[in-house]
Amino acid sequence: MALMKGQPPNPSWVPFDKEDASALKEEIKRLRKALSELTPSLESLLKRRGFRVYKKEPSEDLLLPEERFIDGFYETMKRYSFRLFLRDVIKHQGSFGNADITRYATSEVTADYIDYLLETGLIEPAGEAKYRLQKRRLRSFGETLEWFLSEIFHREFSTEAVWGVKFKRPKVGGDYDIIAKLDGSILYMEVKSSPPKQIYANEIAAFMDRVYDLLPDVAVFFMDTELRMKDKIVPMFEDELKKRHAHPPAALRLEKELFQIEDNIFIINAKDGITNNIEKVLIRYFRRGK
Description:
alpha+beta; Trna Endonuclease, Chain: A, domain 1; eight-stranded mixed beta sheet; 9 helices
């Protein structure tokens, strides 16, 4: 690093290499874990709001390999093309060939993904150049995506998180897709695997109902898409806010396809990476007012 003119040499300075960065990252994770253990549990934080978990983390539609493959599966799920590929596999779960599921990647990449699913035991041969899921009659990719988002909070942000949560509430029902503990705060995330054209106003209204009932410190509406959010999703939020407020707050663009409503409601997608976008939300929330 070049010294500025007049700056004395610093004999204690040494280059900050990748090993140092990795060690620092692990130390941050350790400190976050220690802090998490010192703050109330997620169950306690929910209880303070009058919420008790009735059901969580269903497995009927969960598509996961054996435990020895979980780490690799998690890393592969970070690829948007792989998640789109899995949606098509579930859609054609009884019988499919390479051509049936080559929509969002090249045929070579799709063939690699098929080989990977064969290796992990998630699919099996079903005739000449045909395959099928080992676990069939899955209704959607939703549960697997919720599991993945929960794992991101666990692995990347050292937070306690549960997915597919149901509460017994007299007026506001439905699933709370992700509930996570951020130190002493609660984050609620709605997870959508459908493209924007398949999202409707009643889903935005249901999300806002749950936000106003749970009163999380951070609320995130996440769509697993790289398509624009401003065209349809943000206007639907603006319409919903007009129904609820005489002077509705604005949905402001943070950057690209990330939007914020007031201090604690965020609308995000998968463009530039899910983990990256969640990190931007958390930084924005914890530095609010700065």
